[in-house]
C-alpha cells in the first residue's frame, strides 16, 4: 500500500501516520524518495479524515483499490468523531514544485489552529530565487517553501495605513532595499509613521542607495520611518555657588593703599523674605530669581568708596531688558582739593543683539567740594561748597571682544551722550573705540600675541564745573605722568593747580606677548599719546607722547588679576606736567 505525503499539509500526514501505526499497516508503507520529484506521487483516500485531496493528485490502481477495500479508521474514536474546523478545512492548492499535499500543524487536543500559510502571488510570478527555489529549512522533498508563522505587528496606537498601501495579514507592507535578497514571499511589515522634520528623532532615514529599484514593484523604495520612542529622563542638578564674600586689599600708584570687603550674590531674589532665622542663615532667603546684588566697601589712604547695587538681567520674564539700581558714597583726596559724592543711579538696558546694546540712565548726586590746597585762584574758589547734579544719558555699545576683562581679539565701540542740569547745566559727548588684533597663538590657543589700539574723545559744555572736567595722567589714562599730571593748570604766581579741561583726546597702542610657556608672565611694549585742553581746540605744545615697556605677572595666590609694572618715558609733554616714569597697578585692563 503506497502512501504519499506532501509538504503543505502537516495535518494529513500526521493523521495518516497515526492510523497506519494503529492498524498495523506500517509494513505496507513504501519509503518515498525525497530527493526527486520525477514521478508523480500516489494518492491516498483521506475521506475518512475529512480532507479533500488536490485535483491533480495522481494515484495508481493498487492504491485506489486498497483505499476502496480498507477504509481508514482511528481507534478509540466512535463514529460520531469530527475533526476541529482548522483541520477539516480544505487543503490549499498544490505548490508549484510538484503534486501532493503540503504539510500543516496537527492538533493534539482538538484546539483551533491557524490554517497553513500560502505562498504569495509574487512567488508564483517569479522572484529573486524563481518558483523552484527551496529553503534549506524545508523538510524532506523541498516541495514548496518555508512559511514562517507571521504574527500581526503591534500598532502602538498608530493610525491606519493610507490608501494604496500593500497589506498582508492586515498589516501594511512597505518594500525597501533592505529586503532585497530575502526569500520571496516574506513581506516586511513597517507600520505607518507620522513624518518628522529632518534632524529630529523620528526623521526619515535616507536610503542607502537612492538609485535602487525594487525588482518586484519596479519602483524605488520609500523612506523607512523609524519608530518614535518616548523615554522619561530624570535630570538631577546641583546648583553651583552663586554668592561670594571677599576680603582683600590693593595698592597702586594712582589710588594708594586700599582695602576691600565685598558681598556679591548672582542669584538674588529681592522678594523672597526669610520666614525664620533658619532661612536667613541657611541661604534660602533672598535667593533664587537670578538677580544680582553687590555690597562693597573700599576704604583707603587716598580715597574710599561704599556702594550697593541691584540688577535684574531680564525684566518681564525673558525679554532682553535689564535694570540696574545703584547707590554710592565716594570720597577722594586729590592733590589740590577734596571731593565727596553721595548719590544714586538707575539704568535701563536693551540688548538688540548679542553684540549691540542700548541703555539709558538717570543720575542724581550731591557733590561736596572743599579743602582747596592753593587758595587765591578765582576759578577754583568759586566751586567750594555743595552742589547738586542731575543728569540723563543714552549709551550705544557694540562689543565683539572674546573676553571682556582680558580681550585678545574683537572690538568695543561706545558712544555716550549726557545732559546735566541742577546747579549747572551742560552737555557731554564721549566716544571710545578699542580694537584688539590677534597676531599669533599656539595650537592650544595659549601664548597669544595681541596688539591693542584704543582711542577716546570727549567734549563737555561751557558750564562744566571743575570737578566734572576731563583729566589725564596715570596708569589708566596716560603712563609716564603722575595721576592727573598731564592736565591743564592754573597758577596763583607761586603754585599750580590742576584744573582739567573740556576737551579730551587720548590714545594708546600696546603690543602684548608671552614670556613664559604658562603665560604667567607677559611683556608689553606701548606708546601712549593725547592731550586735555581747557577749550575745544588742540594745541601742539600740549600734545603728549610717552613710549615705554612693562610686565604682567599673574599670581594665583593674589587672584586672577595680574600685576602690572610699566616704565614710560615722555618724549613730548607740556612744561607744567608732572612726569613719573614708573607706574604700578593691579587689574586686567586700563
Task: Summarize the structure in words.
There is one protein chain. The chain is mostly beta strands. The protein contains 6 helices and 20 strands. A 16-stranded antiparallel sheet has the order 3-4-5-6-7-8-9-10-11-12-13-16-17-18-19-20, with no helix packed on it. It has a two-stranded antiparallel ribbon with strand order 1-2. A hairpin with a 2-residue loop joins strand 1 (166-168) and strand 2 (171-173). The longest helix is centred in the N-terminal third of the chain and has 14 residues, at 10-23. It is globular, with a radius of gyration of 48 Å.
Oligomeric state of this protein: single chain
Please state roughly what percent of the residues sit in beta strands, choosing from under 5%, 5-15%, 15-25%, 25-35%, 35-45% or over 45%: 25-35%
Query: If helices are DSSP runs of H or I spanning 4 or more residues, what is the number of helices?
Result: 6
Sheet bearing the most strands, described? 16 strands, antiparallel
Attribute tags:
590 residues, mainly beta, two-stranded antiparallel ribbon
Write the layout of secondary structure elements.
Elements lengths: L9 H14 L37 H9 L15 H4 L32 H5 L40 E3 L2 E3 L69 E10 L3 E13 L8 H6 L8 E8 L4 E10 L8 E13 L4 E14 L4 E15 L7 H4 L3 E15 L10 E13 L3 E15 L8 E12 L28 E3 L4 E3 L4 E12 L6 E13 L10 E10 L9 E6 L13 E5 L4
Antiparallel strand pairs: 1-2, 3-4, 4-5, 5-6, 6-7, 7-8, 8-9, 9-10, 10-11, 11-12, 12-13, 13-16, 14-15, 16-17, 17-18, 18-19, 19-20
Brief digest:
This protein has 590 residues and is mainly beta.
Amino acid at each position: 500500500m503506497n502512501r504519499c505525503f506532501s509538504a503543505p499539509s502537516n495535518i494529513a500526514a500526521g493523521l495518516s501516520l497515526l492510523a497506519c501505526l494503529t492498524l498495523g499497516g506500517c509494513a505496507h508503507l513504501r519509503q518515498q524518495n525525497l530527493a526527486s520529484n520525477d514521478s508523480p506521487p500516489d494518492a491516498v483516500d483521506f475521506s475518512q479524515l475529512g480532507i479533500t485531496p488536490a485535483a491533480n493528485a495522481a494515484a495508481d490502481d493498487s492504491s485506489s483499490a486498497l483505499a476502496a477495500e480498507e477504509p481508514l479508521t482511528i481507534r478509540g474514536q466512535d463514529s460520531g468523531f469530527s475533526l476541529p474546523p482548522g483541520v477539516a478545512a480544505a487543503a490549499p492548492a498544490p505548490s508549484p514544485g510538484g503534486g501532493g499535499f503540503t504539510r500543516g500543524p496537527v492538533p493534539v487536543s482538538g484546539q483551533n489552529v491557524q490554517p497553513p500559510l500560502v505562498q504569495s502571488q509574487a512567488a508564483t510570478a517569479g522572484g529573486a530565487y524563481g518558483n523552484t527555489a527551496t529553503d534549506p529549512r524545508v523538510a524532506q522533498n523541498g516541495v514548496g517553501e518555508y512559511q514562517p508563522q507571521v504574527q500581526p505587528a503591534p500598532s502602538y496606537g498608530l493610525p491606519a495605513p493610507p490608501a494604496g498601501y500593500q497589506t498582508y495579514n492586515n498589516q501594511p507592507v512597505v518594500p525597501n532595499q533592505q529586503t532585497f535578497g530575502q526569500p520571496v514571499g516574506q513581506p516586511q511589515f513597517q507600520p505607518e509613521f507620522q513624518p518628522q522634520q529632518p534632524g529630529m528623532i523620528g526623521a526619515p532615514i535616507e536610503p542607502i542607495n537612492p538609485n535602487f529599484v525594487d525588482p518586484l514593484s519596479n519602483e524605488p523604495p520609500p523612506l523607512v520611518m523609524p519608530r518614535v520612542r518616548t523615554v522619561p529622563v530624570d535630570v538631577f542638578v546641583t546648583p553651583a555657588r552663586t554668592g561670594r564674600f571677599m576680603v582683600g586689599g590693593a595698592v597702586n600708584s594712582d589710588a594708594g593703599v586700599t582695602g576691600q570687603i565685598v558681598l556679591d550674590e548672582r542669584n538674588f531674589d529681592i522678594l523672597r523674605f526669610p520666614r525664620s532665622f533658619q532661612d536667613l542663615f541657611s541661604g534660602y532667603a533672598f535667593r533664587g530669581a537670578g538677580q544680582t546684588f553687590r555690597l562693597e566697601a573700599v576704604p583707603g589712604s587716598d580715597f574710599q568708596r561704599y556702594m550697593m547695587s541691584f540688577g535684574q538681567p531680564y525684566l518681564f520674564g525673558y525679554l532682553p531688558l535689564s535694570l540696574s539700581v545703584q547707590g554710592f558714597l565716594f570720597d577722594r583726596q586729590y592733590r589740590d582739593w577734596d571731593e565727596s559724592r553721595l548719590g544714586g543711579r538707575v539704568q535701563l538696558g536693551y540688548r538688540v543683539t548679542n553684540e549691540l546694546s542700548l541703555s539709558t540712565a538717570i543720575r542724581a548726586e550731591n557733590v561736596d567740594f572743599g579743602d582747596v590746597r592753593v587758595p587765591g585762584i578765582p576759578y577754583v574758589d568759586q566751586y567750594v561748597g555743595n552742589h547738586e547734579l542731575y543728569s540723563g544719558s543714552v549709551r550705544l555699545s557694540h562689543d565683539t571682544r572674546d573676553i571682556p576683562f582680558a580681550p585678545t581679539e574683537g572690538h568695543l565701540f561706545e558712544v555716550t551722550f549726557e545732559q546735566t542740569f541742577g546747579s549747572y547745566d551742560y552737555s557731554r559727548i564721549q566716544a571710545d573705540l578699542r580694537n584688539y588684533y590677534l597676531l599669533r597663538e599656539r595650537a592650544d590657543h595659549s601664548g597669544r600675541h595681541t596688539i591693542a589700539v584704543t582711542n577716546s574723545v570727549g567734549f563737555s559744555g561751557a558750564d562744566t564745573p571743575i570737578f566734572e572736567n576731563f583729566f589725564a595722567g596715570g596708569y589708566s589714562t596716560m603712563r609716564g605722568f603722575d595721576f592727573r599730571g598731564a592736565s591743564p593748570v592754573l597758577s596763583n604766581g607761586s603754585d599750580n593747580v590742576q584744573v582739567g579741561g573740556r576737551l579730551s583726546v587720548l590714545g594708546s597702542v600696546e603690543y602684548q606677548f608671552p614670556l613664559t610657556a604658562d603665560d604667567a608672565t607677559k611683556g608689553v611694549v606701548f606708546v601712549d599719546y593725547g592731550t586735555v585742553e581747557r577749550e575745544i581746540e588742540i594745541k601742539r605744545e600740549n600734545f603728549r607722547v610717552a613710549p615705554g615697556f612693562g610686565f604682567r605677572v599673574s599670581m594665583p595666590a593674589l587672584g586672577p588679576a595680574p600685576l602690572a609694572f610699566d616704565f614710560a618715558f615722555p618724549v613730548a609733554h607740556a612744561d607744567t606736567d608732572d612726569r613719573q616714569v614708573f607706574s604700578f597697578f593691579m587689574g586686567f585692563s586700563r
